[in-house]
Amino acid sequence: MRLSFIVPAFNEEVMLGETLRTLTASARGTGVPFELIVVDDASTDATPEIARARGASVLRVDLHRISAVRNVGARAATGDLLVFVDADTLVPAETLQQMLGAVDGGAVGGGARVRLDHHGLPWWARALSMFLCWLVFRLRIAGGCFIYARREAFDAAGGFDERYFASEEIHLGRALKKIGRFAMLPAAVTSSGRKLRLFPGWQLLRQILRLASGGLAALRRREGLEFWYDGRREAADLRQSRDA
Fold it and tell me: Is 206 within the bounds of a domain?
């Protein structure tokens, strides 16, 4: 067994170093060989330099479509198990151990429980994030911040559907469930709550209503998906501990 960690990144100099440091420590704890692949989607900051300094190989692309960026990393990966991790997500060793146990037990892929760091979030955002994280786990939906698949199952599923600019992980999950057992891990990963800090409530509501009215067609164009593609990032001197 060899693990391939694939991390898509665009201007992630603030978050990426800690993500890769934690991922490396957790992966070493499993005793399983692994590789780190960062797919740099035309960053203009120090993202590629930080990735290399943390031991990752860097693939440079200019796609601005997360499904396609993830697929580039998958094509370059040499591992038997592909693990897609967002650049703002911390993966503990327990999660990887549970993942390996699930795969040894026959799972073709899956995801993990997700929690967001709540530092600086208003009460409504904390409540909303906890409810949504609970709901998607109950519905067995893997978040894009952490989703894994056996190489052969990923290929059989056709990889991430590049017709979509968002929700690509949901479509992959559905395809994997048709192939075999899809295992959701109770051990959580911690992802940044920055979107809820950077976007006011009215803008978030507008995004939800737009998607509700537009359906799948709205996810097949980048316009209107500012929540994912506007490129806003928190400055290093403003970011607090991601473990809060």
Answer: no
Paired residues of 3 in beta bridges:
34, 81
For residue 71, what are the contacts with CB-CB under 8 A and spacing of at least 6? 159, 160, 162
Bridge partners for 60 per DSSP: 40
Residue 147 covered by a domain:
yes
CATH at residue 15: 3.90.550.10
Residue type, 110: G
Token digits of residue 101: 């146990």
> Model pTM?
0.89
Q: What integer pLDDT is reported at residue 30 of this predicted model? A: 95
Residue 6 pairs with which residues in a beta bridge? 37, 84
Q: What is the residue range of 110's domain?
A: 3-198
pLDDT tens digit string along 49-76? 999 999 999 999 999 999 999 999 999 9
Residue 100 has which token pair? 């390996």
Strand ranges for the chain from DSSP E: 3-9, 34-41, 57-61, 81-85, 89-90, 109-116, 146-150, 182-191
More confident residue, 221 or 175: 175
Contact predicate 173/159, CB 8 Å: no
In this predicted structure, the answer to whether residue 239 has a pLDDT above a threshold of 60 is: no
User: Does residue 216 lie within any of the structural domains?
Assistant: no
Helices first, then strands: H and E counts in the chain: 10, 8
Q: Where does the pLDDT of residue 194 fall: very low under 50, low under 70, confident under 90, or very high at 90 and above?
A: confident
Tokens read off for 82: 């592909």
Number of domains in the chain: 1
Residue 232 has pLDDT above 90, yes or no: no
